Amino acid sequence: MKTWMPGIRPGMTKLGNEIHKTHLMRRYRAENLADVRAFDRAKSRLAKGEDELMPFEMHERLAKGENPVRVWREYRGLKVQELAARAGIGATYLSMIEGGTREGKVATLAAIARALDVTLDDLVG
Predict the structure, then answer these.
(1) Among 8, 26, 27, 56, whose Cα sits 20 to 30 Å from the Cα of 85?
(2) DSSP class of residue 89?
(3) In the prediction, which pLDDT does 1 show?
């Protein structure tokens, strides 16, 4: 009984298998290099303050469907009145957006995003 190994194709010549294994190794190295470069870019963005890490609890809350405006506001340590003042909207309106009874216009959500120092996609994406 022959066992199959990654990179070895049954029925191929020895040279064919060597070429195939070489191709797989090159592809693996290229993918690994791409991962390393992506990591370096992310690390650089963090160091420059262009990006930030979110605590796992935030990911959990967002995954459960909590309103992103509320999640980000609480993460930033702001009260409803503080965020509303920074965004130039009423606190009641902000509460309605967070509660889901109002959707909020794009311009309003953009103002909230700027006040929270996040992208619009972080709030609606």
Answers:
(1) 56
(2) S
(3) 45
